[in-house]
Amino acid sequence: MHELPQQLVNGLLLGSMYGLVAIGYTMVYGIVQLINFAHGEIFMTGGFGALTVWLMLPGGTTMWIALPLMLIGAVIVATLIAVGAERFAYRPLRSAPRLAPLITAIGLSIVLQQVVWAWFPDAKSSVKFPELPGGPFHIGSITIQTGDVFLLIAAPISMAFLGFFVKKTRTGRGMQATAQDPDTAKLMGINTDRIITIAFALGAAFAAIGAVAYGLKYGEVNYRMGFILGLKAFTAAVLGGIGNIYGAMIGGLVLGLAETLTTAYIADVPGMQQLGGQSWGNTWAFVLLILVLLFRPQGLMGERVADRA
Amino acid sequence: MTALLEVEDLRVAYGKIEAVKGISFTVEEGQIVTLIGTNGAGKTTTLRTLSGLIKPKGGQIKFQGKSLKKVPAHSIVSLGLAHSPEGRHIFPRMSIEDNLLLGAFLRSDKEGIQKDVQRAYDLFPILGERRKQAAGTLSGGEQQMLAMGRALMSQPKLLMLDEPSMGLSPLMMQKIMATVAELKASGTTILLVEQNAQAALSLADQGHVMEIGKIVLTGPGRELLVNEDVRKAYLGED
Asked: What are the coiled-coil residue ranges (chain B) (predicted)?
């Protein structure tokens, strides 16, 4: 049996990556009631944006200089694609039946995958992502892998920023109002189109940070990395209660913990020996989703629907 | 003197169904003008068109001489036209104070905003007592007060109130109508849409009776109040 504190830390780290990506699903859903299934691919393009910057830098650039530039590159690429998708793919369909934008989103995600597959050099298989310097470091009995250090720092800062933005800034309050009642938000003078654009952009920016974290954690990016991770992040958003940004963070953490702990310990349960290990991690994550949908469909922190009256 | 609001031959349609079929009226500064009529007469559609939520099919809307036709909904409030919508539509999961502050979304004069928040609390003390409470927990009448207070936060030149008495107890209705009168006395210009014809007409300088998308009768409020047709149709007398 592995050490529990270590597994908890691993779970929280993995979960905070899910949370970063989940924010994009939940923000967009909260405002336009669209499940943006292309969000996983927007996350993926963020990873390739960062990689592109790295490949353009002269060889031997230290990560201290490269990483901030890669982050900026990731955020710019993902944000531009997300805002473009909103403007040209989703906005024309805003008053169409719900199925139309949903199918558009799936189509868009295939297009993004194929574009990266076809155009990015060597993207047909996994592409090596630069590594952070230095070895793993230790806190007591807990080991933090070098690749996770970025996540450990970036995730809490991102989430604190988001909380501040939504609660304290004028645009954030405009966003809350638009999510609750778009027509009335317009009557207050809120440019709801602009708010929707900002929601897509912010979601993409957080996904891009998540993608850099992914690259550093696993040491590679690939054109399909958005699929499973996107599904997991979507699961996290539903777990937490879709539409609720704090829910997305909590849902991500819960999912990360559940996945890590089941992977580590389920084989110790009598009769479950063959269900442990890495390859079953995804299965347990989605089992958790099904359980939540069965017993608490509004999610852990979901809004009661009644107060919409 | 030109009117604050001029509506001329306004026509609005939902698909092929015309909800407003060419109505004209004006609102002068300092007046209360009311649109009365039964459900489906086109009163709410008219207000929603004035504030840009629905695009008209034809006709003219001029506010202070300027056409509103090409102005997007979110820019109309900055011209001085505030709309307290039918069914109140307060933001349920935000606090009362945040709701009021959203009414001042486009203003940046912090001190002025604080003053106006205080004024809303003076007008409706119950809101002040519960300022941190989520607006969705208020009673219908309190939500109506909040919706009116929120609309006033933009310092409008024209306040449009859609069915402020809808679904309220008689006592609460009186309170709301007294506030409307109070606002008029302090110089606010009001366009009032009501099904409660009695209350609306007794406050109004000018009243218009709407029936299935048209204005069928116009006159000073007190005259309409004693008009036989109006009494029969809207005040429940025969």
From this structure: none
